[in-house]
Amino acid sequence: MARMPIxxxxxxxxxxxxxxxxxxxQLAPKLAAYGEVERVVAPTFLAMTAVASAxxxxxxxVAAQDAHxxxxxxxxxxxxxxxxxxxxxxVIIGHSERRAYLAESDESVNRxxxxxxxxxxxxxxxxxxxxxxxxxGETVPFVRSQVIAALDGITTGDLARIVIAYEPIWAIGSGxxxxxxxxxxxxxxxxxxxxxxxxxxxxxxxxxIQYGGSVKPGNMEEFMSQPNIDGALVxxxxxxxxxxxxxxxxxxRVKGS
Length: 257
Ligand code: PGA
Prior knowledge:
Order of helices and strands: EHEHEHEHHEHHHEHHEHEH
Bound molecules: 2-phosphoglycolic acid
Strand order of the largest sheet: 1-2-3-4-5-6-7-8
Number of helices: 12
Structural class: alpha/beta
Largest sheet: 8 strands, parallel, barrel
């Protein structure tokens, strides 16, 4: 079964609500033609409702950049998956910036993944190793441990609703991307093989896995040509409508051929 490519733009802490709406009004028509690729934007919480409403009649979907695992309660500053439910289809969790600066742990990622699935949304779970781990040759065991922890207690049936983003931390925002071949090899060994062990070959073949880390129009084709890479989680290049549209066009062309 062919896996549908998914390109998600992670805007991080960029764009005010007004800027976000103006941006998606400009972006949506540029993405209209590529029905064979899932197209997703992840604005800040503050812009979420405005962006969702601006994209109501568009095939472009909305993601949140995080969600709390509880439905409601005394968790100052947090937003729950249940609250996001009317506005988004995806929630990015476990991003390395949250792991590094905001105490995100494997355990919280796992709790969030379960809450997101229970709210009928789909998690995009980000994993990836640091430069020190990469240089020490620890990439595969480390990423594998992140995947095992994130998926703990999740059923094989729910795996089809999960997207994993492999993002080597040393490639994020650095202009240094992994090579397509290296990313594909790590995704195969640390991610698909691990999922096959846990949930069987069928699940490993079904789950969609993105690459992330300095993806740009100039290197997109290299990543999309890899058999184990089903799309991209994009930071910097997703803030420019022409660049993001170019990424979607390349995914549609390379994966469709
Ligand atoms: P980048 O960010 O494309 O700017 O490297 C990727 C990400 O953090 O998801």
